[in-house]
Design goal:
Number of strands: 13
Largest sheet: 8 strands, parallel, barrel
CATH topology of the largest domain: TIM Barrel
CATH superfamily of the largest domain: Alanine racemase
Shape: elongated
Number of domains: 3
Structural class: alpha/beta
Strand content: 5-15%
Helix content: 40-55%
Number of helices: 16
Strand order of the largest sheet: 5-6-7-8-9-10-11-12
Mean pLDDT: 91
Order of helices and strands: HHHEEEHEHEHEHEHEHEHEHEHEHEHHH
């Protein structure tokens, strides 16, 4: 039996040499940072992950520097880091993208964004959205009494909207009516016909005209993770018959003038722009129908749906999106204008309720790396023991024969012999050390093949 000794790879196949050929661009491509990072995250020339913020000028900040600063203040990992500058940038980009689309299309109204409080109820997040968003009259969406109180306490700009969705009891409605009396545009969006009698009764008792919206159930089935809740299967919104019941009840109460908003939420994280355009087109048909019924209208709320490209793939897969922000805004603005202009209907204020698209990039989980696992082969003997299994000898011969001219052949042979050894192991016809040796030699073959392809 030969005496094992350490196998030394040739100079052109050493791990160190492979590392020298690896660059920060290789890392950025491997992890897709420049795709899903959307310009906010990147890898610097020194290999550190950086976040890019814009505050008058564009600035790159190393995440490692942020972590060191946190440690100096006694903060340990894991920790959730929220970057207000990125949050501000998202609000700015959303509002300015709609402003550009409106200007380019000759659209005769404006955009009003609202942030759904339920998406992130952290105090500092809501405060920052209300504070920075006031430059764009960016409002808040409330789905409960508690969230309505938050919205009323944070919004200082009375041109910012408050959209009230969800279940509404008498106390909730009274609170919104008092906000209306103070000059705050606070809309009650009807989810079911049973909510309307409460609104009418409380508004009559307080002698305050409400701002009313209706949420319709769109028939458009969207792609993505939540597509099973879209279309006719949606649990939210009024049917067409229910919508007509609301109109008739408002007419009977001489309150049709209070109906000024149509709400159409297609779904969350919509990856395909065609779904959005189809949904807006249908919403415009409902909007024009309400105008024909005598409602003054004036606001078209398209809910959420603006996706985040978590994968960076730029496709219509569930966790991606096949459109950019500017395209999203242009499609909405153009569809509304093209639908309503032939009917001589004034352009409504466009409202959207982007949640994830507003806050997703502004927070991250930071945690320590406790260990690192690699797939480099362990040192191999110069030659195998004579009594080693024939398959191991064949695999070792493949390692010695690796050459760029035999690239595919060596790859196929290495995997074949390794899998044969694994099969023998499963049958109990070889031992643990033989399997470990087969897998280790295969790793060495793959490493040499990789170095050949890199040359």
């Amino acid at each position: 039996m030969a005496t094992p000794s350490t196998y030394s790879p040739t100079p052109d196949s050493t791990p160190a040499d492979a590392e020298n050929r690896w660059s920060t661009d290789n890392s950025a491509d491997l992890y897709g940072v420049r795709n899903w990072g959307a310009g906010y995250f990147d890898i610097a020339a020194n290999g550190e992950a950086v976040v890019t913020v814009t505050n008058g000028k564009r600035t790159e900040v190393s995440l490692l520097d942020i972590v060191e600063g946190m440690k100096e203040r006694g903060l340990e990992m894991p920790a959730v880091l929220r970057i207000e500058n990125v949050l501000d940038q998202r609000i700015k980009e959303l509002n300015e993208a709609f402003a550009r689309a409106i200007s380019d299309a000759g659209y005769n109204n404006e955009y009003r964004g609202v942030f759904p409080i339920k998406v992130n109820q952290q105090c500092h997040v809501i405060e920052e959205i209300a504070d920075f968003g006031s430059h764009y009259h960016h409002g808040l969406e409330a789905g409960s009494k508690a969230e309505l109180i938050i919205a009323l306490s944070q919004l200082k700009d009375h041109r910012s909207l408050i959209i009230c969705n969800g279940y509404k009891d008498a106390e909730f409605i009274e609170l919104g009516l008092y906000a209306r009396q103070m000059g705050i545009p606070c809309f009650f969006v009807l989810e079911t016909p049973t909510e309307l009698p409460i609104i009418l009764e409380r508004s009559k008792a307080l002698n305050i005209d409400p701002l009313i919206g209706v949420r319709i159930k769109s028939s458009v089935v969207v792609e993505g993770h939540w597509n099973e809740d879209s279309g006719d299967r949606s649990i939210f919104g009024l049917s067409t018959g229910g919508l007509l019941d609301v109109i008739d009840e408002l007419k009977a109460a001489d309150m049709l003038h209070c109906l000024q908003l149509l709400h159409c939420h297609l779904g969350s994280q919509i990856p395909n722009i065609r779904n959005i355009r189809s949904g807006v087109l249908e919403a415009c048909r409902f909007y024009s129908g309400l105008i024909a019924e005598g409602a003054p209208m004036g606001y078209l709320d398209l809910g959420g749906g603006l996706a985040v490209d978590y994968e960076g793939a730029r496709t219509n897969s569930t966790h991606s999106m096949n459109y950019q922000l500017d395209e999203y805004c242009v499609n909405i603005v153009e569809t509304i204008r093209e639908s309503l202009d032939p009917l001589n209907i004034n352009h409504p204020v466009i409202v959207s309720e982007s949640g994830r698209a507003t806050v997703a990039y502004s927070s991250m989980l930071l945690f320590n790396i406790l260990d690192v696992r690699n797939h480099e082969p362990s040192p191999l003997p110069v030659q195998l023991p004579e009594d080693a299994h024939e398959l191991l000898h064949n695999l070792f011969a493949v390692l010695q024969a690796v050459d760029v001219q035999k690239f595919q052949e060596c790859y196929n042979d290495a995997l074949y012999y390794r899998d044969e050894v694994r099969e023998l192991f499963r049958r109990g016809q070889t031992d643990l050390r033989a399997r470990a040796m087969a897998e280790n030699i295969t790793l060495a073959v793959l490493e040499k093949l990789q170095n050949c392809s890199a040359r």
